[in-house]
Amino acid sequence: MKNAASKTTPDTTFDVIVIGAGPIGQSVAARARAGGLSVAVVEKELVGGECSYWACIPSKAMLRPVVAVADARRLDGAREAVTGPVAAAGVFRRRDRYVTDWDDSGQAQSLADMGAHLVRGHGRVDGPRRVAVATPEETIVLLTAVHAVVVCTGSRAAVPDMPGIAEAKVWTNRTATDTATVPGRLAIIGGGPVGVEMATAWQGLGAEVTLIAREPRVLPQFEEFAGELVDASLKAAGVDVRHSTTVTSMRRPSPAGPVTLLLDDHSEIEADEVLAAVGRVPLTGDIGLETVGLTPGSWLDVDDTCRVRGVEGGWLYAAGDVNHRALLTHQGKYQARMVGNAIAAQADGRALDTSPWGRHAATADTHALAQVVFTDPEVATVGLSADQAARDGREIRVVDVDIPATVVGALLYADDYQGQARLVLDGATDCVLGVTFVGYGVTELLHSATVAVAGQVPVSRLWHAVPSFPTISEVWLRLLEALRDGERQ
């Protein structure tokens, strides 16, 4: 790397070096600074990362107007006021506002305000506790860490390897969230969270969407009813959903022309654009892992403090997508808080609390993982599904409730409310292991469920958590009543 630049600067030493200035890297920096440590943060793109500019923020800014119009159409008296389609140009303006027109100066200033030193450029680990940064000015900045280097470089969209995909110029999540033109026909490959969210958004913006799912149902990693309800809603909105289907090849003879997708049943689909939403791969291919005995391009194996295993001296950490524990921004920021706290404690000579639910252990990654899919209806889930708990060998009790059949607040929220809830209990302790809500507006219920799972709250105590009437949160009471009624049988 040193030969690729015209000048090398003298070493600069910090207590902690963070590679990646997305939400996770910023959170590590904030906790390390709160612990009195000096911090350098390295970023080669925009400060704020994928979440701020091409994922969570822009996608939700695009989805909310689509769902708001759908919400209005579900209410007598309100639907009459909806006189036209969603205005795509207005949605794009809204999105651009929330991504600050891809200007990262505000987030860069936030780093400066916390006292972190921002180094712009491509950072690579350069042996133990060292990072070499190739800057835009073609210099190499050498950084040395006293205590720790933290890798927060995130992930990128996986693009399937198949004939014709290069000429097809497929979209990834980045194109799907920063383009300002609605394609006439959009084919989406993948039935996971990104695929179904983008199908919801782009169908609502006026595209003719075909969703191609390899699995027999969309959202296969969630409770079965979640995929069924989202699938039915997508079809009702006009999305052509193809299940148990694989794309085998593509062709786009003209760069400005349509794409033809060949499916495994030998049928074809023609689209103006194609979005690949088939997973993520780690951005670790060119960050110097080989200099410390690790494999470039790999997910980084970490312990519960997010310290990378197999690195002598225990100075290397990885938080966020790169460790593959939970590819979610909020969960990565949670890990970052653990990492920052752990580094600061060790620097101060204090012992780490790595017991389950301890101050320096990311226990929620495996026991209270919360996730939302912003479709219409929404999917909100935390903890273990019934299948996951059963595979773990646990004795469980499962309680299901049809939300519109039992919750008055849901009917007031939408005249034709669609939704379901599931509670998974530990049969031995009666504590909550997992909760799934599917329905309109259920995302705001999720944190109550997260508290119940993380707090290992028993059913006996939940009876004293009284939901307000008439709200959708009454579903909690209905779940408990269904459990009680089942016990009487």
TrEMBL record:
It is an enzyme of class 1 (oxidoreductase). Coiled coil: none annotated. InterPro entries: Class-I_Pyr_Nuc-Dis_Oxidored (IPR050151), FAD/NAD-bd_sf (IPR036188), FAD/NAD-binding_dom (IPR023753), FAD/NAD-linked_Rdtase_dimer_sf (IPR016156), Pyr_nuc-diS_OxRdtase (IPR001100), Pyr_nucl-diS_OxRdtase_dimer (IPR004099). The keyword Transit peptide does not apply. Its EC number is 1.-.-.-. Pfam families: Pyr_redox_2 (PF07992), Pyr_redox_dim (PF02852). Keywords: FAD, Flavoprotein, NAD, Oxidoreductase. SUPFAM superfamilies: FAD/NAD(P)-binding domain (SSF51905), FAD/NAD-linked reductases, dimerisation (C-terminal) domain (SSF55424). The keyword Iron does not apply. Residues 370-476 form the Pyridine nucleotide-disulphide oxidoreductase dimerisation domain. Residues 14-331 form the FAD/NAD(P)-binding domain. One of its GO terms (molecular function) is oxidoreductase activity. Its cofactor is FAD. PANTHER family: DIHYDROLIPOYL DEHYDROGENASE, MITOCHONDRIAL, DISULFIDE OXIDOREDUCTASE. Belongs to the class-I pyridine nucleotide-disulfide oxidoreductase family. This is Dihydrolipoyl dehydrogenase family protein.
